Amino acid sequence: AVVSTQSTGMKRFTVELEFVQSLANPEYLNYLAQHNYFKEEEFANYLKYLLYWKDPKYAKFLKYPQCLQLLELLQEPRFRDELINVPCTRFIQSQQMQHWSHHFRRRANLVNNSTVKKEG
User: Fold this and answer.
1) DSSP assignment of 69-119
2) For a Cys-Cys bond, which of 17, 56, 92, 107 suits 26, CB 3.0-4.6 Å?
3) Residues near 26 by Cβ (< 8 Å), separated by ≥ 6?
C-alpha cells in the first residue's frame, strides 16, 4: 500500500509538473481559451491550486520557469479572457523571445569576458 501511494504521488507530481510547464506555451494557452477551459470554475480553481509550484522546493524542478509568471497572470479572469485573441498570444510569444534573446546575449558576454580574463 505504501509503494502504491508513493507511485501515485510521483505520477501526480509528474503530471502537474508537465502541465504547469505547458503554461509557458502561449499557443497552448490560446487553445485552452478557445475551448473554453478558462470559463470553467473548476479549471480556475485548479490553476489556483497549482500556485504551490512557486515554492522554491517545487520550482527547482521546472525547466521553463516563465510558466510561473503565466500561472500568476492566469489567476486574473481578464487575462484568461484575452488569451482567446491570437494577437495577445503572439505578443506573449514575442516578449518571451526578446527575453530569451537578451538572456543568451548577456550570458554569452559573461562567458566571453571570463575567457578573456583567464587568458590575460
Assistant:
1) HHHHHTTSHHHHHHTTSHHHHHHHHHHHHHHHHHHHHHHHHHHHHHHHHHH
2) 92
3) 83, 89, 90, 92, 93, 96
Radius of gyration of the chain (CA): 18
**What's the rounded Cα separation, in Å, for the pair 16 and 11?**
9
Say what the pTM is.
Answer: 0.75
3-state secondary structure of 63: coil
CA distances from 22 to 70, 79, 94, 109 (A): 10, 17, 17, 30
